[in-house]
Amino acid sequence: MITARAAATFEPVGRSVATARSFVRDTLQGWGFSDIVDDAVVLTSELVTNAVVHAGTAADVLCLRTEDAVRIEVSDHYPEREIPLQNSPATMGSPDREGGRGLQLCAALATRWGVDYTPTHKQVWFQLNLPDRPVGTRAAGPVLPADLLPITDGRVRVAVVQIDRAGAISAWNEDAEELFGYVAEQVTGKPLTDFAAWPHTPGTSTGIVDALQLSRWEGSYGIRDSSGRVIPVYASHLRVRDTDGEPSTVCLLVRDDERAVLQTPLRGPSPESGTLSEPRATDPFEVFIGSPAPEDLDGLLQRTVERARDMLDGDAAFLLLATDDETELEVRASTGLPSARQRFARVPVEAGPGRYGSARLPAVHEDLTVVPGAVPLLNSTGMRSVVTVPLKVEGRLTGSLGVAAEAPDRYSNEEALRLQFAADRIALAVESARLGELERLRRGSLSFLVEASDLLAGTLDRDQTLALMAQMTVPTLATWCAVYTIADQASEPYLSYVLHEDEERIDGLKALLTKVAPPDPVPTPGARVWTAPSEAAHQAALRTSMRNLGLGEPMAIGAGIGTTLSTASAVGGETVVLPLVARNRVIGMLVLGKPSDEHFRQEILELAEDLSRRAALALDNARLYSERMAISQSLQRSLLPPGLPQVPGVEVEVIYRAAGEGNEVGGDFYDLFPIRDGAYGFAIGDVCGTGPEAAAVTGLARHALRLLAREGFGGPAVLERLNAAILDEGARSRFLTLLYGELWPQEDGSAVLKIVCAGHPLPLRLRQDGTVEPYAEPQPLLGVMDDLELYEQTVTLDPGDVLLCVTDGVTERREGTRMLGDDGLADVLTTCTGLTAGAVAARIMRAVERFASDAPSDDMAILAMRVPGLDD
């Protein structure tokens, strides 16, 4: 039975794919189905791409919700397009082909899928089943002996925090004050987001604001205490309303290592009532982990280290997982150790300094002071004895489990055998959970990279590309990031952009990085650790602290310890550098950082490397586009006169509008220049086409006109020689329409003009009585035939008369089938009686722009000359 539906239609344009992804993501998250969002977004993206890009039609997307599944249908209007059959996977083609991948993904990710045809539509649909969510009591479990119950350090404190409709804190109990160091008056009325360090997973857009709106939520995040330190907590949120109907969210929070107080794992199936069940054999896994087992990998690993510590009565325990190639171990869970400092730290398995000794075999170290560095994880922790055992699946190293104590000689081979027995029981479950988490991360990463590629491909602006790079990495991949750019091989890296998830720390971070030498632009792919920011920040914090204590030089006015310590905390974790390589050249570096003592996960670094490759190409494309635009604009400016001379007794106004975004040169041009005393030349022309060839003809025409006119040639001779020069260009020549004239202001207030109109729109004369008439006769355009016989016409502008010259971009302005034309231009000009030359040109341009709603598709030039009237 369908319980909800949502539908939308997307036009056959490229941006519709990203819009469709957002529609599906928002719909499923609104229904509370975040578990399947990533799979649904990836499948929708492929199917909508097939519709709007490959089929070239609009796409109809329909989301249907049932009690146990979600069905998404994507329809297009091209039923003749061939679709592979479900039972014939060979017809789907190679994954490297442009088509067919959407159906392959459906076959791989969807629970069910298919293709339906109607006379007018083709519909591809897929169904994703929802994970089982048993209702009822979830905390039921067996009665455990007292010695098997979880151990706490003291009284368990449960912080009770109430959040109002606007997300602000309205209640804060005494346990919250004790856990986080704030009294109620300090936090009441402030948003919870000011204190929460919310987790971010690639491809997942659900944030704390969304979580606070859910009817029930449970999970882990962090709270920044009064000293700025992040305290990991486990939380249970419940949405309630008071007697007036006002909604709020009650948040129960405990320290993350005490999550057993709040966590409600799923209960296993119980025997049917009224039946007798056979005694079930004891499962060694459940004996060690307990029942029910945690569902998520982090919960399973945390439960493992806690049980291992309790089993051997240790002071600390830790668990590391191996990378796919078994060359490194990554810290994933610990208890009794500063886990925030160690989490995701990596150590080599085999050779090299700081290696993790004996990772592949059980090992007992009776006193670590005798063999310092044998277990790098325990350096400077006060632990003296340790036992470690490997986790193996089918002979392959998948991890390592260790238990440590502060006293020496605590462990022997007997404890190692007990711990190895437990490790063998849980190794398969841990590896299965790890692979499941890795698969979810990869699906989320795929969705993240799809959206990132769309965003980067959607702009050619360099600054916007830099901003997008930073905003996509923070806070999804890192706490802060910086982008260095390299202009050319001889230039030093330049700090171009800095971003931190806390905006108040951006200025301090930028100031720190400007004082640190930039990382070396090494083209080697992959992330490499960069320690300079962390070292510089800690040195600055130390100097500031000493000054504050009176042990160093006095602090400058306005300086304080807060900003320095805050910056040191912001960059105190792991910092990595990824090269931005495009077209076999390093064009910059992407720097990612974590706060104090935190490390990057290997999966996150791999995702960041994929993103850096896409970002580098987008940044280089933006650079090339900017360079091309700058060259085009510079060349376009060189083809136009730098300024217009003052003509005694004649008002002159020019308006020039280039079509597009300045990425093409050529087209229309104009000029006004002195020939000799009392005589001026003017021209307005239009070269056929745009681009370098047209620009060459434009430059040739403008400079040849000035040179020939100043050599004393008359109008016909000037244009005939220009025609010959254009034809000499051969294949690079272009047709040219040109209106050329010479102007002589007269002492009686009039002006004499000699005009040659070679294929150009005829100039229009506006008399004082409002009549408009053409002011020349048409003659052949230039660049077509060798022998031209041109002639000039002599006319006189009386006081108050206006001469209007335009290019065809003005007269050919279109709106549908309508065109302004010569008659329309003349009608506008008749309304300009008594206006100055500047006002005439402005009114003409305004009328042309208003004639059509679309932006002009052709360059436009307007040259207006007016002889002032006797009353001016």
Automatic annotation (TrEMBL):
<dbReference type="InterPro" id="IPR013767">
    <property type="entry name" value="PAS_fold"/>
</dbReference>
<dbReference type="Pfam" id="PF13581">
    <property type="entry name" value="HATPase_c_2"/>
</dbReference>
<protein>
    <submittedName>
        <fullName>SpoIIE family protein phosphatase</fullName>
    </submittedName>
</protein>
<dbReference type="InterPro" id="IPR036457">
    <property type="entry name" value="PPM-type-like_dom_sf"/>
</dbReference>
<feature type="domain" description="PAS">
    <location>
        <begin position="160"/>
        <end position="190"/>
    </location>
</feature>
<dbReference type="Pfam" id="PF00989">
    <property type="entry name" value="PAS"/>
</dbReference>
<dbReference type="Pfam" id="PF13492">
    <property type="entry name" value="GAF_3"/>
</dbReference>
<dbReference type="Pfam" id="PF07228">
    <property type="entry name" value="SpoIIE"/>
</dbReference>
<dbReference type="InterPro" id="IPR003018">
    <property type="entry name" value="GAF"/>
</dbReference>
<dbReference type="InterPro" id="IPR036890">
    <property type="entry name" value="HATPase_C_sf"/>
</dbReference>
<dbReference type="InterPro" id="IPR052016">
    <property type="entry name" value="Bact_Sigma-Reg"/>
</dbReference>
<dbReference type="InterPro" id="IPR029016">
    <property type="entry name" value="GAF-like_dom_sf"/>
</dbReference>
<keyword id="KW-0378">Hydrolase</keyword>
<dbReference type="InterPro" id="IPR003594">
    <property type="entry name" value="HATPase_dom"/>
</dbReference>
<dbReference type="Pfam" id="PF01590">
    <property type="entry name" value="GAF"/>
</dbReference>
<dbReference type="InterPro" id="IPR001932">
    <property type="entry name" value="PPM-type_phosphatase-like_dom"/>
</dbReference>
<dbReference type="InterPro" id="IPR035965">
    <property type="entry name" value="PAS-like_dom_sf"/>
</dbReference>
<dbReference type="InterPro" id="IPR000014">
    <property type="entry name" value="PAS"/>
</dbReference>
